[in-house]
Amino acid sequence: MSKTPEQQHIERVKSLPCCLCGHYPPSDAHHILEGRIKGRKAGDFCTIPLCKDCHQGQDGVHGTQAIMKVMHENELNLLDSTLKKLFKIYTNR
Fold it and tell me: What are the two backbone dihedrals, phi and then psi, of residue 61, each rounded to the nearest 5 degrees?
């Protein structure tokens, strides 16, 4: 069975290094929390690559979010950089 575009996108995101600390892949595909409706998960195209620690660790995005504060980042900026990396991969630029 062929994969949906969403499944293909998630696989590509997981193949990138962590967008916060640069840890080598495979990464988790984190559905961003910023701007979503409470109780609903963001769409599969709104994902960023995070290592286990930056994703689910104590200081990760599902913890205290200290890593985001230390790196002076937010999820929308990280989504932007992720999409730029993927676009570069897609277009070989």
Answer: -70, -20
